Amino acid sequence: MSEPALYLGWRVAILGSTSLQLLLLAAAIATQSPNARANRLLTAFLIVLVGVVAPYTLGYAGAYDAWRGLTFAPLAIPLALPPLLYAYTHALVRGRRPDRFGLHLGPPLIQFGYFVVCFALPPDAKWDWYTGGHRHLVGPAFDLALLVSLGLYAASCLRLLAAYRRDLAEARSDDDRFATGWLTRVIVALVAVLAVYAAFTLWDWLSGGIDFFQETGLYLALVAIGLYLGIEGWRHATLRFPVPEAAPPDPVPAEPPVAPDWRAVATGFDTRLREAGWASEPDLSLPVLARRLATNTGRLSRAINLGLGVNFSAWINGVRAEAVASALDGGSTGDLLTLAFDAGFSSKASFNRAFQARFGVAPSRYRRHVSHHDFPPPGPEMRRAAG
């Protein structure tokens, strides 16, 4: 009797090598102690993703044709991917797992248990069920559940990240360091894969079955997204993401208070900030500045929002941009990035954005034209923060 033949083609090479890289990244991320909760959840996500790809890697190699007993091997649990991605996002920006996280894992545990039971069936019964009830009933139900789950969790992740960025902009001047744009791109890419997967599923239902070789592009895209997420997750594994603190409620006064002149209050805070040079501190935060101004975070935040019409990040970075512009006005020939770091910016990207927002031009253009008399001066009012 001849040995079963396996086919190690380009699909197996790409999926297999990428799966190995994902496992190596998962191991590296799991060893990082900062953001330990988030890192463990990302590790779990990457391992589950490798499991989701594994049946296709084995299938392209001909393993299921050679060993039909592998049918229903509980390797792929795709229903675990959406809740793990959401839990990772939540742990990253909130410092903890979602409430009642065990309930989120109910559907994937049911899916895993189903595959374990089916895998234990006698070979003939297993194959009959795979080609019958599973293919026509259970498989489509799992596909539909995955589509709904990924859509709902992706929307929840995007809302969570948007709220986090708003909270950071109200509390920190270095919020750009924690913008999590890479995670947003991963989620958007997964939604795109969701659309492709939905098209394949619909095609499968309408045509009565498609060859899994026709799904090659889908799984190549999936491992590419996973690899990007793993690399970015590893790059950010040691960056401790701040958790914005909720402002304490103001005490209830005995009589209705007279509304303060927030413009005047904000002007006073702004003057003291500039005189003390506190804006040059890269990690300046709302609580730190409130203590130095001998006020509370709620009053300071309202003064900035209502008196200046901007959030905390836009205010501080606007002052920093003005410091760079002042140096250029004074004839400084220093490197722009050096001037930006001296002013308190933590990255080139945040400097360019803040300068453009404050003066309406890029810093390099400002430098080129600053000596021209017809160069329009910056507006006296700080521009309103976007969003």
Give a verbal description of the structure:
This protein is mostly helical and 387 residues long. The protein folds into two domains: 226 residues, Rhopdopsin 7-helix transmembrane proteins; 108 residues, Homeodomain-like (Arc Repressor Mutant, subunit A, Orthogonal Bundle), CATH 1.10.10.60. The chain has 16 helices and no strands. Helix 4 runs parallel beside helix 7. The protein is elongated, with a radius of gyration of 27 Å. The C terminus is likely disordered.
Question: How do the strands and helices of this protein lay out in sequence?
Answer:
Blueprint: H1 10-30, H2 36-60, H3 63-66, H4 81-94, H5 101-104, H6 106-119, H7 123-171, H8 181-207, H9 216-235, H10 262-276, H11 286-292, H12 297-308, H13 312-329, H14 336-343, H15 348-359, H16 363-369
- What's the CATH class of the largest domain, please? Mainly Alpha
Strand composition percent: under 5%
CATH architecture of the largest domain: Up-down Bundle
Provide the number of structural domains: 2
Number of helices: 16
